[in-house]
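name: query_chain
kind: protein
chains: 1
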Amino acid sequence: MLKSSVARVGPAAFALFATLLTWPFGARSQEALQERSVVVGGTQRSYTVHVPANMASRAPVVLVFHGGGGRPEAIARRTGMNDVADQNGFVVVYPAGAEAPSGRGGTWNIGGSSSPSSANDVAFVQAILADLGRSVPIDQSRIFATGISMGGVFSYRLACEMSSTFAAIAPVAATMVESSCRPQSPVAVLHIHGTDDERIPINGGRGSMTATNRAWPAPMTGLTQWSRLDGCAAQPSSNTDGCTTYSQCRATVEYCVVNGGSHTWPAGATERIWQFFAAHPKQAG
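structure:
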């Protein structure tokens, strides 16, 4: 079923989506990162923000969520999002997850009984946007979320629970675990996944480092659900640059599969994600 409904795009083809991303990423822009904090339920939480010099008068905002055990500075380097922000005038926010059970880095409350965290991360995101809005003129129609692994899973939760806020999300190497998603307005979704992802398998189930009480749903399960939530046609109908897109949607749903890709942020993904976000401001419910 997956082969019939999803196009695979090889690493060489996927790299055509961007020309900026080489390793190491964003060395110049890291100098402009600023750490800020908010208090959520009596607990101080931190986030890092990058404001480009050419910020628009009403700026789009992209929240980037690190994976389990990650940190804001690492995901900023890994994605190179600051460099893309500098070229396009949007603000980037890197929230820091609550301490992971391993004690190494942070993680996210993805919802459900198997979440590695019980932190009120939805309230954390709301507090970040309120705090940021006091110093940055946010374009409320262009607030977006992306993330890798647990961070990508959490971005799905935000789309479900903060649909009136987020215009689009772009999970990478992630999946959707929300069992009762009832968005109040459409949210565009771009999902990027590798065929050889060893931690969140493309066909679902347990991957390496997956807890014994958790089996991941296949990414396609969440995309099918969002295609219904966004009022799309039952089957994907177009294929552009190797990515399959649903049509007749109130908000676009798109799936890019990297042939041979593992549990990582693919080369070219950052520019591709921004192109998607730029094309999908918030739609009326």
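note: The chain has one domain: 2-278.
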